[in-house]
Amino acid sequence: MKDNEFLIHMLPQDMEINTTEILVLGSGIAGLFTAIKLCDKFEVTVLTKRDIMASSTEHAQGGIAAALNQDDSPEFHFVDTINAGAELCNSEVVKILTEKGPECVRELIELGVEFDKRQGSLDFAKEAAHSRRRILHAKGDATGLEIERTLVAAVRKRNIIIKENHFVIDFLKNAQNQVCGVLVLDSASLKLKIWLARAIIVATGGLGQLYRYTTNPEVTTGDGIAAAYRAGAELMDMEFVQFHPTALNIAGAPTFLISEAARGEGAVLINSEGKRFMEDIDGQELAPRDVVARANWRQMEKGPIYLDFRGLGLDKIKERFPGIYKTCLSYGFDISTTPVPVGPAAHYLMGGIKVDINGRTSLPNLFACGECACNGLHGANRLASNSLLDGLVFASLITEVLKKEIGPMPVPEELQIPEDWQSKIRESSPSTALNSTVIRRKMQQIMWQYVGIIRDKQGLLKAQADIDKYRQEFSPSLEISDLETANMLTLASLIIRAALAREESRGGHFRSDFPTAGEGWQKHSVLKRGEDIVSFISI
Ligand code: SIN
Asked: Are the C-beta atoms of residues 386 and 74 closer than 8 Å to each other?
């Protein structure tokens, strides 16, 4: 199916045009850290589609990994990251992450983040596939909330323009094909607006909402990735979606994350007979996430599975996992006495907008960092608690580049508006043939069933046919939920294409028809609008 360059084809003549020097899209850790680091040199505007706190960062529990403990080093962190990534990590960027990580975490502490301490020193937790205790956490299992609150407060104290309820629909370019602005729906005033900038940084997060079960919040619909793809930016490694092994699995309850740190502290997975089932598997409870998620999936074919915290004791549970304890209790499970039902859920996208080490996308003036970006750091499977660190370190590198070189301020006359665009919203807004909510639910079910933890050619082809049909039938109206659904359908089709093309199993991508890692497949898939073939590159 042909992909369009724009989601909607309209540009009202009297549209408000705003300019700013740097436009940051998204208000999670990567976006806010970028804004904070650039605001002393440039006028920075942050656009975010809902309120500023709404992002995956706010929901992060386990913590942030950095080699700051006495028995640790960036080299150990490097080796663990590479091992988890299933021979697909870009070692150059892993080296940067692990070496620059401690300095960036110190900056967070200077901004006011209070990580938990034990006897006056930072307390380090252990998570899957880490050879050392190196995970910093805050308020037990509320690490993300502590970081997000601190960053939001820091942004508000500075001279940074924040525009909430601003949904970025598409990127706009000049005659030289340079990205120079965005078309935005201001959902508070229901007006379309243009924002022009010297450089645009996409930090819009992941796409967990493509799946029936996800640990991600509602905002994670991949809008920045889809818009970048439409604009012609290359995407990389889209087949690699990480499934977290343990999310709360109670009918009617949200798919709430139960941190891997719980198993790091001694909680264990058990089946419906009360027996541990990870004991036979390499690395046991703390094997890499993809291994544990698949083991859980297979075990669930036989019956429900549970996470058993009883060995930890009430005091430890309340101190380390107060949020998990309270949430489970609210659904009738006192985890100090009763194992809680869990199951895997979509958690993180290893792929995304292809960027170089300095966050440059394949389009001039367009940068990306955080979960929406892909520089090969996480390979085929991200090491636990490396995502918040990724957001900091690679945001920081973008800011160093922009302080040295940045394009001129664009002017409205430079905008290249396609001739067929209409000027009146009412005439150009198509009616929605199919209801967006219904399509979204169907898509989530298809993605979960056929493009999830275990895939095969037959299932992927069925998913492709179904998603293509919805894409043909669905045209979004000017409402955020419609625009999100259209973006999600585009991304679903891209994940399926990449998953079909990778005829092997590696990290988060498991094909039951190609169940082992293939010779010569240590390559990254690349997708670009207008190119039918998925290409594979070495970096
Ligand atoms: C968790 O707390 O288990 C999630 C941490 C992560 O995704 O890195």
From this structure: no
What ranges do the domains of the chain cover?
A: 16-59+142-240+350-412, 245-346
Active site residue 289: yes
Ligand 1 site: residues with CB under 6 angstroms?
61-62, 259-261, 384-385, 387
Mutate which of 59, 126, 127, 265 for ligand 1? The one with the most ligand atoms within 8 Å of its CB, which is: 127
Ligand 1 atom closest to the Cα of residue 383 is 8
For 250-263, give the secondary structure using H, E and C. CCCCCCCECCCHHH
pLDDT of residue 426: 45
Ligand 1: which atom is nearest the Cα of residue 386?
A: 8
Look-up of token digits 């809008």: 223
Distance CA 384, CA 275 (A): 25
Q: What is the largest CA-CA distance in the chain?
A: 69
CATH domain 16-59+142-240+350-412 topology:
FAD/NAD(P)-binding domain (3.50.50)
pLDDT digits (tens, 9 = 90+) for 474-526: 989 889 999 999 999 999 999 999 999 999 999 999 999 999 999 999 999 99
Q: Which of 289, 382, 502, 529 is catalytic?
A: 289
Q: How far is the CA of 384 from the centre of ligand 1 (A)?
A: 5
CATH number, span 245-346: 3.90.700.10
What is the chain's mean pLDDT, rounded? 95
User: What is the total residue count of the chain?
Assistant: 539
Q: Of ligand 1's atoms, which has the minimum distance to the CA of residue 348?
A: 7
* Residue range 38-54, pLDDT digits in tens: 999 999 999 999 999 99
